[in-house]
Amino acid sequence: MPRLTQTAERLEHERRVLTTQAAVLESVARGVALPDVLEQLCELIEGHAPGAICSVLLFEESTGTLRTAAGSSLPPEYAAALDGIEPGEGAGSCGTAAARGEPVIVCDIATDPLWDSFRDLALRFGIRSCWSSPILGPGRAVLGTFAISHGEPREPSTEQLALLQTASHLAGLAVERDQVQRTKESLSLELQNRQRLESLGVLAGGIAHDFNNLMTAVLGNLSLAADTVTDSETLSYLKAAEEACEQSKILSSRFLSFARGGAPQREPVDLADVVREACSFALAGSDLACEWTGAPGLPAVDGDRSQLIQLLSNLLLNADQATPGGGLAMVGARVRHVARGDLATLEPGHYVVLSVRDSGDGIAPEHLDRVFEPYFTLRDAGSGLGLATVHSIVRAHGGHIGVESQLGRGTTFTIHLPAAEGAAVQPMVAVPDLARGRGRVLLMDDEPAVLRVATAFLERAGYSVEAVAEGDTAIARFTEAHEAGEPFDAVVLDLTVRSGLGGKAAVTLMRQVDPGIAAVVASGYSSDDILSSPDEHGFDSAVPKPFHQSDLVGGVQRALEARRR
Questions:
Q1: 20: helix, coil or strand?
Q2: Are the CB atoms for 159 and 126 separated by under 8 Å?
Q3: Is 274 left (phi over 0), alpha (psi -120 to 50) or beta?
Q4: What is the mean pLDDT of residues 260-277?
Q5: Taking the model in full, what pTM does it have?
């Protein structure tokens, strides 16, 4: 008879466990919010063990701590005290279980050394025993802990140990499902943002192209005029206008950061140098201080230095606006190896992880998913383009950006940027004075004002210049000169023209006539990465608009030198 009773009790226990599993799995399948699923799990397990108090702590990767996620039966002050403990040997049952990755059974908190640091706290709230099991994810990664506590010393039975393991397994399924759902939502939002930014990029790129053509003409004519006047007052006015045009390049670069043609001109970049320049530029006259806490021996970033300065400047300006009373912006960096699947939008490899943290107003949870949208802003004076620009720059570099924020406690932006594998940072060197040139140059641009300025620049440098307005005419003149035995030494081709052939198609046809021609591409906007890697598209050098005389002449000289090698 006793054996039959034991069998009946065991079957009843197994039935109740199966019922619990079914209820939790149904909630997971229906997409019930994770906190509600974990609270339901705690209540069901407590129903199996009268007097038990169940709780769940989840591991927060950004802080490296365990955060209280469920456990309404715990005394509120006790639950609050557990929130934020660090995993480690001797950090109670849960902290130790998270550190070891295996269950930790403490039958009497009053005497167990694992509770030395938390003993007084637990006893004050009447907690005398605690059995904790780690919640494990893929690859046995610790996602958190599930704990069963009692108000008296107690040793678990075999069935109770099995119940603890079942509970931690079910919690793991719920947490994994929540992570998968968050990843799907993040990817969906990422896709929406990309579509918005691509639409804006088409418009921005067109504006940048026309703007840079106009600025090339303005800047060029100011430079030419400055070389012809002797009156010091007039010269000072011209120089001031030139300086204003130089500042306009910043506005143009912002447009190009949205454009699909704003491809980074990559090189190994010292991130510490970028931080110094961005802090100096963005926080001049601000009450916000900037502190660099980058890890020693940080590798270079494979990126565009000017775009990275703009990225960090925008983040610091955002931090400044969020802390109107002044404060501190913490800028840090570390190295991380990203394996396949770690971050859905990143390729495997080594990355430099840049973080920008402020202690400002913070961002409300309902707004957090929209901060990178173009024109979305929470400030009256904001344009809504600063963080959208940051997002575009990070995307163009093949990186990833994330944001965490709490109202009243500040915001942290975390950016993954590809490390420059095995490459040294190239020191910045001054550009030497340009030597005078010699030879014939064919110049093609569909803007008459740009043709006039560029022709004057090259002729002043000693070149003989023939100027045409579009690609078909350029090819015809190039072919005629070659057949007549008076070939051009170099061609300067505008990449994008309103009608006829652009520079990319024109240089391909020209090389069929003369494979050795020195070719320069000039543009205020590119629909691909030609400006960042001209040698991969048939050109020997690239000159972005607006340009100075030294830029254009230097581009021609580099192309000629490349063909002499």
A1: helix
A2: no
A3: alpha
A4: 78
A5: 0.43
